[in-house]
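Q: My labmate handed me this sequence with no annotations at all. I'd like to see what the chain might look like in three dimensions before we decide whether it's worth expressing. Could you predict it?
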Amino acid sequence: MYHGIIELPWWGYVLVALVLTHITIASVTIYLHRHQAHRSIDLHFLPAFFFRIWLWLTTGMTTKEWIAIHRKHHAFVDREGDPHSPKIFGLAKILMEGAELYREAGHDSETIETYGKGAPKDWLERKVFAAHDRVGIFTMLAIDISLFGPIGLTIWAVQMAWIPIFAAGIVNGLGHCRGYRNFETADASTNFFPWGVLIGGEELHNNHHAFESSARFSSKAWEFDVGWFYIRGLAAMRLAEVKKLAPVRYYDSAKAMIDLDTLSAVISSRFYVMADYTKHVIKQVHREEIKNAGVATRKLLKSTCSLLVREECQMDEKQRTRLKFCLQQSAALAEVYEFRQQLQQIFSERTATPERLLLQLQEWCWRAEATGIAALGDFAISIKRYSVAHA
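A: Here is what I predict for the chain of 391 residues:
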């Protein structure tokens, strides 16, 4: 019986399958996602060519379709028009039929043309990768069987299932339903695992939606993005160049007033600002109110903590009613919640001049200090020291 060119123990075949699928995941996150869809890195011809060939062999996906569908996801995230949101289609459908939703979106020529701009148009893309997308995956089948014999068919099946299950299913599904959130984005994105290894760093999905053009998905010191690790390695070999990163906040202790530089720093790092507001104002006042509340009110306040920091568009009517009732029980919480909404409003302004926004921020800080709420006043003072640098 033919055993293939390479004979391995059972665990060797398992290891081979894991390595091959991990290369596919790395190709998706580095080439398709960070390089092509968001332009956060530039790739040298050699790794870019390798990733294109590998994706042709292992997924049959075309670059233009993938980046178009992903960009449309960001444009309509978790609302009507999102090609694969569990909020629209349900978690079960994304987990079980995520690849089918991708294929359906790929048949929409308007989506592909509108959101697929900048994809490769060279001879290889036109005449090989896009024109013969199925040839690649059957070529991979022939390679696997030649190398490993009949077990190669199983390895190939695992390769073919990996992206539909983990990327189209788990990232797009669990990444908008389960996990923790570092940043209160206007969508339901979550980090469903802090060590992004199995899916190339895509596990840090909330971080990505907060800073979608950043080449690095990790944000906290204890988070690990293996895709970023590979990018750093490619950059060290001069095979990649990092173009965009999330802003890095820092405080300038010498600053004593809010100026246009402060405004720019605060707006560019607004997700960090709001995370700080949650930690140092909302949660601190919430703890104080619980400590001083009666038994019935204490139970209510404890049950509504998460709603105090959630975007209103992410709440249903029942949750809005519960939050409203909670705020009626605590004047302090109602006040810091209102200040949170007002700060968000400054960030969402699209037509105001910088001078007008500066006046709004200065007024917000002045009023915050005047409330007599210590946590809110301290936060307003800290705003003066905000600055941004890029790593």
